[in-house]
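Possible regression after last week's pipeline update?

I re-ran a chain I had predicted before the update to compare outputs. Posting the input and the new output here so someone can diff against the archived version. Not blocking, just want to make sure nothing changed silently.
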Amino acid sequence: MSSISIIGLGNMAGALAARAVASGHAVEIIGRDQAKAKELAATLGGGATVGTFGAVPVGDIVVLAVPYASAVPVVAQYGDALAGKFIIDISNTFNADATGLVIPEGTSGAQEIAKAVPASAHVVKAFNTVFGHVLAQGRPLDVFFAGDDARAKADVSAFIESLGLRPFDVGGLAMARWLEGVGPLLMGLARNGAGTFDIALGVDLPG
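New output (post-update):
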């Protein structure tokens, strides 16, 4: 099992941390609010620890579970503390009413984060196509991911699979823009055709 550091204290961070602890991973919780981080770690149990915001994360895989508006400033603050890490960006980049993306054409949130981390760190986009409350239900879900570094993708894929989820590689990090575009699609589907947010996208493999 891997050592996983999660930067963030929101619902998605909690859901990922819970599945990681249940799967036997060593989990480090990191947040600006140390009291909330300690509370989440205590709730998780399983030996979950609390890290110091801005210090070198313990995990080889670092889950960046903060809103996109905070993501680049956070990794910039960490600087060389993220050297050599595999960073999973789970953020969505849609606008306030979830009708479009705030990122300019030709890039993605994940690519902008990748520009801000040390050269030896590698960003993988994943988990942004799954609602946090659905992830927390423990259901077997499909998780789409994108990245440019083969080893980072292999490790992230293995991590996803260890959580009882099916990993699907969609290509290089440039594909992250299209994964981020799934956000407004899911929101529109939940509000309209599905009529519920208790949904997930999946792949149906024939045979």
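Follow-up from reviewer: compared with the archived run. Helices lie at 11-22, 34-44, 68-78, 109-116, 132-135, 150-162, 176-191. Marking as no regression found.
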